[in-house]
Task: structure prediction
Amino acid sequence: MALWAVNMHVDAVFYEAFAEEERALRAHLPPDISARFTWKTIQESGDPVPPAPVISIRTQSTLPTPWAAHLRAILSRSTGYDHLVDYRNRVTADLQLGYLPLYCNRAVAEHAMLLWMGLLRRLPRQLRQFGSFQRDGLTGAECRGRTLLVVGVGHIGHEIVDIGRGLGMRVLGVDPVRRWDDVTYVSFDEAAPVADVVVAAMNLTPASRGFFNSLRLLQLRAGAVFVNVARGELAEAEALLAALQRGALAGVGLDVYDQEPELAVALRSGSSTPSAAVDAVLALAQRDDVLCTPHNAFNTCESVERKSAQSIEQLEHLRRTGRFLWPVP
Amino acid sequence: MALWAVNMHVDAVFYEAFAEEERALRAHLPPDISARFTWKTIQESGDPVPPAPVISIRTQSTLPTPWAAHLRAILSRSTGYDHLVDYRNRVTADLQLGYLPLYCNRAVAEHAMLLWMGLLRRLPRQLRQFGSFQRDGLTGAECRGRTLLVVGVGHIGHEIVDIGRGLGMRVLGVDPVRRWDDVTYVSFDEAAPVADVVVAAMNLTPASRGFFNSLRLLQLRAGAVFVNVARGELAEAEALLAALQRGALAGVGLDVYDQEPELAVALRSGSSTPSAAVDAVLALAQRDDVLCTPHNAFNTCESVERKSAQSIEQLEHLRRTGRFLWPVP
Result:
């Protein structure tokens, strides 16, 4: 792979790789590809120029515009690729861009269910009140018989539909593309007033950005719980906070965040931030009707294994053919 | 109802009633039955003698032997009635004893699932690590395709079987009475080495007390998670702690506790206790591979409503016929 690494020490750098993922990636890496791994984002790493011709990120690094001229390819180890499309629109270089479809559908869907069950049963309060063995204010709701609304029924959304049905819920789906025969599709306007659990599972596109704004949250049933396992930018943190404060929502479960890169840096550095969205997320995380997980819905041993295997498959295909096996459309 | 309340100020006293339950009970109470409510156990209340001819408890009050001579009836607002059987064996008075079958099967089953999902996905760590937005050590396991072992397949266990199947798990049941046609029954010895999730859902009887002792926990697969939503005395807290410490279990989810009355008093009073079992529970609750909830699995709005309606139905039946509608067998 020396061809790629002219004047560079390694062939590829993996940013945002956590411990278990690094172990799995190393296990799949062939001996003739040299790679460096870090849990940091590009910004946290402080790298002034690309340290390798191929870089791999997840969704929290901001790709520096000047890097494009020095890069051959970027692989995002994520199912979403909106950030790569944005980058392609900003730069002129001819870059290969790749992503990872299909590696974590079930993991994300099961995580969404864990969040809505935790909210329906007031788990944060239950865990706290174990300390006094008091049950006041802990009465929750059963999910069987309640209505689940899945907004965005792609591969992940379809698994969420399957889980909701398995739990005896009434399941409705909202998606402009009605690709699955076994889903009961409705419009958001019809479904919003009757849903007990609403899960955001759509791609981030210019059309879906900010979909769950104040007006749409107002359409939901009072007492509904809202879960986002897709992209933070689909739902404004300030609108979610306001909906909880006025009692329009009974709970919010988030694995992804509005301005997530800034949030991650603020949380890791402990520094304050001037961003209202980040402040709203921090206020949400303090509440006991909110469950916040660190963009971890994908993170099962099954998914990490599939993700690492597919990442290395992408690099080997790139080396062999000059293109990724799963290129960004 | 004055007949009952000779020289007493009220007809019935409800111990261990939390806020939502008291509201629901009052809503069902007919005007001609006078009742008093407290969240305290009999011991916490300090009542030296029975304050009414009929008392209602849950499972944390210890029934004083001398009270039997002054009581007409005891209603336990619980599905389990082992504590009433114990009391009947200790006293000579002819008491009416009642309990509440069937009011919370689904609520308890859904709670068991929430606990095992939270353990499979390392939820306590995820919630903590949101604070640093770090994912090291957070890789969990998907439940689809894994094996669920339900030990005790009564009404609650049967709902747990249904949920496991709905989530795409392989489900096995252990019960000396094979009452359901749709359950795959096995022996504990066969199933223990292959189960990923083990749920205790049996009645507490002299035969089942301490069933999950050190030897049986040793039979389980390394990496299995264990959940108890039935009775604390089925599994010794010290044995569970030891199994986690040596890595034999990957997680423990508890809603019920060995020596729960002593535990509840110790937690509420903040006082230390000489009990090794209580100390072991407190040590378990500190771990991030453990989820502890305060005997709250039953606690959904659906169950509280059914429970309160059935409690008052029991009292009215007792007044009308001299016997409970659902007497302790």
Observations:
- Chain B touches chain A through 56 residues (CB under 8 Å).
- Chain B has twelve helices and eleven strands.
- Chain B has two domains: 2-103+301-321, 105-292.
- The radius of gyration of chain B is 21 Å.
